[in-house]
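ok posting inputs for the flavin mononucleotide job
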Amino acid sequence: MLTTRFTRLVGCSVPVQQAGMGGVATPELAAAVATAGGLGMIGAVRLPPAFLAAALDHLGQLTRGVFGVNFLMPFLDPACVAIAAAKVRVVEFFYGEPSAALVREVHAGGALAAWQVGSCDEAKAAVAAGCDFVVAQGTEAGGHVRGRLALLPLLDQVLDAVSVPVVAAGGIGTARGMAAMLAAGADAVRVGTRFVAAAESAAHPLYKQALVAARAEDTVLTEAFSVMWPGAPHRVLRSAVAAAESLPADALAGETQVAGARLPLPRFAVPTPTHFATGHIEAMALYAGESVGAVRVVQPAADILRELTEGTERLLRQAAAGAVAAPT
Ligand SMILES: Cc1cc2nc3c(=O)[nH]c(=O)nc-3n(C[C@H](O)[C@H](O)[C@H](O)COP(=O)(O)O)c2cc1C
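and the output
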């Protein structure tokens, strides 16, 4: 029932893309999502080419499902693109001008190319650059936020403007949200925050617990965590900003590891705390979307996916039958 242009293009069985999130979206998380029928993604922020190649080979051994790689443009190592394109189904970019040269390189390697965008103009530019699908990100999203519009008005514009499949992102944490997006014409949904709290994510256990405890009202769109990446708005738990503010100005929040190398984390540094992090976890960048209210427990990624897809099928069936959708 949930077959869409996205599932047919990508080759997965349910129209859910797990967001490729720097640090937390590891091969274990992507494999769990891919095996359960979604599009699993790894976040490739600050991963050197050899490390990325090994991670993708490992991922290929963990699942026979469909997976991809996400690159953040400000941190892109150009040598990584061809490596990724040869090993995954989808190579995707975020936070930079859509580039036809990068898309050509992805296609030359045999993968589909996608771009996460924050405006209708950016969506049109991504299509002009040759992207196979676009992800429309509303300001409800956790992590770095590209645009100024909430998801529904953005999706409305993008669906009218492009003919490639469109994935809706930002604040989607429940079957009701997913069903609404599909009913509005999106070809899939992209889910980030819910999967940060998955058992397989590499997020620090205290970060996962903070997500479980938070309500939708507890996030803020801010530029507070700007050390290492200034001027880039992002949505985090409000409590993390307050905890960082209470540290001395020149303090380290702690340290972490990226690709096996130690990385000290000054107060208000951008990297999110993974299970390698030590120090003031509560004062680090605890990215979270308005979807956080749907995080009730740390659970396997497959359970999250099942809850979303089974609930969406039920709601869409009820809507098609003309019934009033009752809360579950
Ligand atoms: C912890 C975290 C890290 C993120 N890192 C990235 C990233 O590296 N690349 C990217 O394209 N988007 C990143 N995002 C944003 C997601 O792609 C997506 O837009 C967002 O998670 C959707 O909103 P939701 O969190 O409410 O589901 C991140 C989001 C979170 C929560």
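notes: The pocket of flavin mononucleotide is lined by residues 19-22, 24, 43, 45, 70, 72, 94, 116, 137, 140-143, 169-172, 190-193, 196, 272, 287, 289, 291 (CB under 6 Å). Residues 13 and 303 are 15 Å apart (CA to CA).
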